[in-house]
């Protein structure tokens, strides 16, 4: 019997020990759990807090504000001066302005990122889409999109140009544009005509009056030069309320060099091709009172046969020849270098014309061996003819393509 209580007490003690052990294990496990939770929570709240603050900043909207003028959906927008893009509380990082064909309007970000300006005018009657992005001081971006349509002009002008696209011309040929309306904003119009050459050479424009603009290099073109002209006149306001409507690219090539010099005293013309004398030809020039202009002239038109009437150049009925062969125009006022079948023995001996340069020919111009036919067949538009030792003055620069008689300084001015 004495052994039972002892056994009972031992059993009870063992039970109580198991309960204490379980409670201790539970408390330890709970402590571990609490420690784990505390450790996880402490990871987000501990330290200096930069990580959390940075993430919060990343989610903040950009402070940069993009402004686009004209407003979205605007119509009848001016082609110059109306498009303005700016950024406040930040800097512009990207600006794209495109027309319906996807062609991008050239422009640049200026004023340290505060503004974007187009490099040229916009086309008329065209819808443009604008996409602009700016960044604030923290590098966060803000974007804005807009669209607008430019005005449709009621009054327009065009430029008739020479030489034609795809032609080959002589070294003296300028690129000349005659406008259908007088231009009162010459800088805007001239800026809209872009000329590039291969090989590269500086080309400058010069206005003759308000309706003609010629472009040329300082000296005659180098043979083989390729010239590309972009006439971006569409949308240019040439005069108040009058807009250009051309967007055209013209290319032409400079052929071999040919400069022919007419000496009025010796009555001979020396034809020089690429620096070498090709031929010397007897000529007749303007008789006293009708002297031929001095100076550099350029062949601008070639006619196998034409009519020459004194009344068209202010000489009344002094002559009317219906079949002048091998005629090549040198001036707007009516100076030609042409075939002459009625001159008799004048060629190389005396001057008998009314200001033109005559070369011996036959009526009908059928003989290819006569000097006039030879010269005609060896010439092209843009070739240079220089007249010297005449008693007349130098031809005016705007009379034909005679701008080579101006110094480079005056031409640029």
Key words describing this protein structure:
Immunoglobulin-like, alpha+beta, 5-stranded mixed sheet, 17% helix, disordered N terminus, 5 helices, 4-stranded antiparallel sheet, L,D-transpeptidase catalytic domain-like, single chain
Could you characterize the architecture of this molecule?
The structure is a single chain. The chain has 413 residues and is an alpha+beta fold. The chain has 3 domains: 65-150, Immunoglobulin-like (Sandwich), CATH 2.60.40.3780; 155-254, Immunoglobulin-like, CATH 2.60.40.3710; 258-412, L,D-transpeptidase catalytic domain-like (Beta Barrel), CATH 2.40.440.10. It has helices at 3-45, 50-58, 186-191, 371-377, 408-412, and strands at 65-69, 74-77, 84-88, 91-98, 107-110, 115-118, 127-135, 141-150, 155-157, 159-162, 168-169, 175-179, 193-198, 204-208, 212-216, 226-232, 237-239, 242-244, 247-254, 258-263, 268-273, 276-282, 295-298, 301-309, 320-329, 336-340, 357-360, 384-388. The strands form 7 sheets. A 5-stranded mixed beta sheet has the order 22-21-20-28-23, with no helix packed on it. A hairpin with a 2-residue loop joins strand 21 and strand 22. The chain is elongated and about 100 Å long. The termini are far apart. The model is unreliable at 1-56 (pLDDT under 50). GO terms for molecular function: acyltransferase activity; peptidoglycan L,D-transpeptidase activity. One of its GO terms (cellular component) is extracellular region. Keywords: Acyltransferase, Cell membrane, Cell shape, Cell wall biogenesis/degradation, Lipoprotein, Membrane, Palmitate, Peptidoglycan synthesis, Signal, Transferase.
